[in-house]
Amino acid sequence: MDYQKLDERRKFYFACCLVGAFFVGLAYTWSVLQSPFIALLGGDAVKSTVVLCYTVTVLSSTMSPSILGGFIKKLGTRRTIALGSILFGAGYVISGYTTSMAVFFLAFGLGTGVGSGLIYPTIMGYMASLYPDKRGSVSGIIAGVYGGASIFLSPMLAGMIESRSLSFALTVAGGAALVVIFAVAMLIQPVPQGYLEYKCGSGSAGAGRAARSVYDLDRAGMVKTAMFYVAIVAFAFGCTSGMMVISQVSAIMQESFALTATQAAFYVSIMSFMSMSGRFLWGIVTDHFDKYITLCIICGLPVIAMGVLAVSDAMMVAVVCLAVTALCYGGFGSTITPITADLFGAAHVTENYGVMYLAFGFAGLAGPQIAVKLSTGGDYSMAFLAACAISAVAFVMALIVRRKVQAVIHS
């Protein structure tokens, strides 16, 4: 395919990937599925084991792009997404029928986890290659659709589970995800070599900066650089406070302000909306302003928000600070891809993003644990203080990344 023809069709490929991102967003519907799974697999006696399976899912999703990086590189974009669609969709379908914990861990823990780990990072890398001139905006839109899909999918699943059964709901949802995402894989086309230079041109400011600051490193080359470790700490530590808010806001509002579960659910929706909005907002900002200043902002604002939360017991102050943190957390979904491409080159952005995706896995494990381990009787001040310190480290790392990039640009 020549460059001009790709220009004409890339909006279609973008639309296909939006649809794919929406369906893989099924991964965010766990809160609706947890109780039905517990009932299916044996009741309260297996509750902790079922919850552990979701942890396996998260780990599988975030670690598989790195562990399977060489295999993914050989498969290519289309076959990776196709394989992911089979694992992801089939994992949901099988999970709805089994009463065996071992099969549940294989189907849901590994199947849907590895499947989403193959699909979403590959789509994000593909979009960065397809839109080298609009990486921030495009990444933000894809990330927003992925993260916001549960707003629509969760009530649909809940309705089908209530009116029919868990197996019926997961057969419909998993089957649809498999078919649609597999179709997306068949419809998109690889980005030809040289498209970055064709699209951006050596005369543009963005291309000029990239030419002087990146070296088109593959995964093996990237992890040998000091910049990689500074950047991934910025991403992982920066995401941690946001992940704590997203995962624990219901408990925080109930335990700290004596709200009912129904009342707290309203604030869960607010934080989900803020996170989704952040993906769109910061993606657009990244394309129109310095992406490294954007990174500093989304790492820096949670330092203030978490610090205020640690010393204030006012409910409205807490809501505002939690919302700001969720907004910044959403920003990482739209900035990691363009920054990875900018720092280490566009040629291997798909596999490199897969490694950077580990940042979300770290945050997904650390954020909730900080909230649970450091809170006592509804007092989350120590947890917020710890999150403030972690966010401060992320902010310092972001400043270091920006200084090093600026030094390369002006050398």
UniProtKB/TrEMBL annotation:
Q: Which InterPro entries match?
A: MFS, MFS_dom, MFS_trans_sf, Proton-linked_MCT
Q: Can you tell which superkingdom this protein's organism belongs to?
A: Bacteria
From the record, give the transmembrane residue ranges: 12-31, 80-97, 103-126, 138-161, 167-188, 226-252, 264-285, 292-311, 317-341, 353-371, 383-401
Q: Which UniProt keywords apply?
A: Membrane, Transmembrane, Transmembrane helix, Transport
Presence of the UniProt keyword DNA-binding in the record: no
Q: Which PANTHER family match?
A: MAJOR FACILITATOR SUPERFAMILY (MFS) PROFILE DOMAIN-CONTAINING PROTEIN-RELATED, MONOCARBOXYLATE TRANSPORTER
Record-annotated Major facilitator superfamily (MFS) profile domain positions? 1-406
Organism, by scientific name, is: Hydrogenoanaerobacterium saccharovorans
Read off the PROSITE patterns from this record: MFS
Q: Does the keyword Cell wall biogenesis/degradation apply?
A: no
User: Where, per UniProt, does this protein localize?
Assistant: Cell membrane
In Swiss-Prot or TrEMBL terms, this protein is called: MFS transporter
